[in-house]
Amino acid sequence: MKIYVVGSCRVHGPLRGRPGCQRPIVGYTHTAKEAIQRIRFVRGEFSIPNAVAPFVFARQQTPVVTAAHRKSLDSADVVVVEVCSAKDVFLDGYSLNLNYANGVGEIVEVDDLDLDLAKLKEMVRRLVVVQHVELPDIPDRSRFAARVRDTCEWLGVPVFNPTKHVTLDDMLDANHYKPAVVKRIGDRLMGFLQ
């Protein structure tokens, strides 16, 4: 099975080096809109100028997409997309990564998640969505994760919920797994993809 990953450290870390895991373009994503933009970019359907690159890829220059990158995406049996943020950030029509934007761009609440997830499903052979880890003190995150699950259920898209596989002690902070947990999450995610 060939796997292509679009997301942040919560999916790239656990799946890095796994059999069949394809090498993606640099830079993390958190939203469905960012994932759509990334897929279109890799396929050559959308260009991202160097002026925006620091806010999309965390690099000063837009990465070069090679034929190998395109093949990695287009030949993937499954595309794993992390959708973990209810905040989209835009600048001049580009979706930015909230962590890279540093106050640049307009932040808006996601209001068309169903359309974005439906679009992602259309764009790839098989889509699997990974939600954020839910923690007791972050109710907004849990509400958004439930929205992701409900929408994906309606679309017939499986959702991996890492919350079922970690405890508070497994987390470095509210967003990151401890290094010892990353392999375990990867094992569970690989099992889920089968």
Short overview:
Helices cover 40% and strands 14% of the residues.
Overview of this protein structure:
With 194 residues, the protein is α/β, with parallel strands linked by helices. It has a single domain (3-193), classed as Rossmann fold (3-Layer(aba) Sandwich), CATH 3.40.50. Helices cover 40% and strands 14% of the residues. The protein is built from 8 helices and 7 strands, in the order βααααβββαβαβαβα. It has helices at 9-15, 32-42, 53-56, 67-74, 98-101, 113-123, 139-155, 179-193, and strands at residues 3-6, 78-82, 87-91, 94-96, 106-109, 127-130, 159-160. The strands form 2 sheets. A 4-stranded parallel sheet has the order 1-2-6-7, with helices on both faces. A hairpin with a 2-residue loop joins strand 3 and strand 4. Helix 1 crosses helix 8 (179-193), helix 2 runs parallel beside helix 6 and helix 6 (113-123) packs across helix 7. The longest helix is centred in the C-terminal third of the chain and has 17 residues, at 139-155. It is globular and about 40 Å long. The relative contact order is 0.17.
Any descriptors?
194 residues, alpha/beta, Rossmann fold, four-stranded parallel β-sheet, three-stranded antiparallel β-sheet, 40% helix, globular
Average pLDDT over all residues? 96
| CATH C-level class | Alpha Beta
Order of adjacent strands in the largest pleated sheet:
1-2-6-7
What CATH architecture would you give?
A: 3-Layer(aba) Sandwich
Percentage of residues assigned to helices: 25-40%
Number of domains: 1
Global Rg: 16 Å
Shape: globular
Decide which structural class fits the backbone: alpha/beta
Low-confidence stretches: none
Taking the alpha carbons of the first and last residues, their distance comes to 8 Å
Total number of β-strand segments? 7
Describe the sheet with the most strands. Answer: 4 strands, parallel
